[in-house]
Amino acid sequence: MKVIITGSTGMVGKGVLLECLEDDKISEVLLINRTPIGISHPKIKEVIHKDFTNFLPLRDRLSGYDACFHCMGVSSAGMSHEQYYKLTYIVTESLANLLYELNHDMTFIYVSGEGTDGSEKGKSNWARVKGKTENLILNKGFKDAYAFRPGVILPEKGVVSKTRLYRIIYQLMYPFFPILKKLKSVTTSSKIGKAMIILVEKPYDAKIIRGQDINLLVSKYNF
Q1: Where does it localize (predicted)?
Q2: Partners of 57 in beta bridges
């Protein structure tokens, strides 16, 4: 299985990447990053691309893949509507349009967030934009597509958040991780990656995947 990952320098994307590297079913991982990730592995192919609103220059590099794990995301804090819309919806639209043209028989998984507004009519700007982005992916026509809406994510295997505030929060929460992991809605960076790999081969009826669904998938298939 050959997969594409965006956002692999972030906490969720890095967790997904590590699971792909450890899974024998994954033969190749193409990373699309703005800056080098600094990991050397036989499975990894990395392309450095600066303009994520236009993936057309990568056309010759993106054919022949079975799945895309789109883990790239930004916080809306301090951003105008236009900025957030561009970095969330426009980026995803550009990637999805090209990948559908080249690999319409692939599975596309988009990392969204808990609280996303699929109706696109709510008061929260970020939730509406995320909802519009989810709807784009789910209705594009890929062989299969999912929107992941994890709530609380506990980092594992040395993965850390790029956001300083979140790093502090995780440090304070660390003693309580064993308790938090027992909650159905709380998942981990490792389980997110494992669930994505599972869904490429084992389709799931629900297309909005929450923390509880992630945990159930991993538990069901003894991953």
Answers
A1: Membrane
A2: none
